[in-house]
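Appendix C: a fully annotated inverse folding record. The material below is reproduced so that readers can follow the format used throughout the book. The structure is listed first as tokens, followed by the designed sequence.
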């Protein structure tokens, strides 16, 4: 059963269907893994999310920051931003089942010898810690007051992590790293202002995957989120957000041989 990992779709349903045609996807024999941000900014968030849900056990996904933002707008008083394009979901009769579907999704998937995450893994975390932190957030997404929990996650602090954080700060740092991180320090200290290519790092920061002390340095890591990344050539690092929603391309990688399949997206 071939496994394919797909970068940020962001509601670009037609591009996703074109990509699946290119890889000759068969629901009977193939599995798809989505790296988050399956909704928002594109024109067809509803069709995209319903399609992924319809694949049942033949598709899995991690949450991205745009998926998380949809949850906040669906489950709390938080209002969509002017650039958000997931009103089709919020106004749909399928809203509740799709929101429940997203609430059940993890922040990290470990599959065979690969780790799948939306943004990245902080350099001071090992595989077990990253997974346990993801599970902690996933447990909180099943709370009866999940809307209140999600709203509490909308802050940039704490910028660093330690074992003594309270539950709220612990989860917030975890969400900010796994769903939003680009640049950080050796100790996992975060900053969120810079979004350019990895060679445009702010002073004293590096792209999370370039730190020499990175604990997860021998495991394949597949991630999205960073559409401006170009020219990355780091062992075991596979960035897969290539700006489909901005008119660039949508990519899938076949896990067995790392072959990349790509289609151009309309501007």
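Designed amino acids, in order:
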């Amino acid at each position: 059963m071939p496994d394919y990992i797909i970068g940020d779709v962001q509601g670009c349903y037609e591009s996703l269907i074109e990509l699946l045609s290119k890889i000759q996807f068969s629901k009977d024999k193939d599995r798809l893994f989505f790296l988050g941000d399956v909704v928002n900014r594109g024109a067809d968030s509803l069709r995209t999310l319903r399609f992924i849900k319809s694949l049942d056990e033949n598709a899995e996904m991690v949450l991205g920051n745009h998926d998380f933002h949809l949850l906040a707008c669906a489950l709390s008083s938080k209002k969509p931003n002017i650039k958000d394009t997931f009103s089709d979901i919020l106004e749909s009769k399928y809203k509740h089942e799709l929101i429940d579907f997203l609430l059940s999704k993890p922040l990290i998937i470990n599959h065979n010898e690969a780790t799948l995450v939306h943004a990245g893994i902080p350099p001071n975390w090992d595989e077990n810690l990253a997974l346990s932190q993801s599970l902690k957030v996933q447990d909180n997404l099943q709370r009866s007051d999940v809307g209140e929990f999600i709203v509490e996650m909308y802050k940039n602090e704490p910028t660093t992590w330690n074992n003594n954080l309270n539950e709220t700060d612990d989860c917030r740092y975890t969400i900010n790293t796994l769903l939003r991180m680009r640049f950080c320090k050796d100790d996992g200290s975060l900053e969120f202002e810079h979004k350019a290519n990895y060679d445009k790092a702010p002073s004293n920061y590096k792209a999370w995957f370039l730190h020499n002390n990175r604990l997860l340095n021998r495991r394949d890591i597949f991630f999205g989120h960073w559409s401006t990344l170009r020219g990355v050539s780091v062992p075991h690092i596979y960035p897969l957000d290539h700006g489909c929603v901005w008119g660039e391309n949508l990519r899938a990688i076949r896990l067995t041989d790392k072959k990349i399949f790509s289609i151009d997206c309309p501007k």
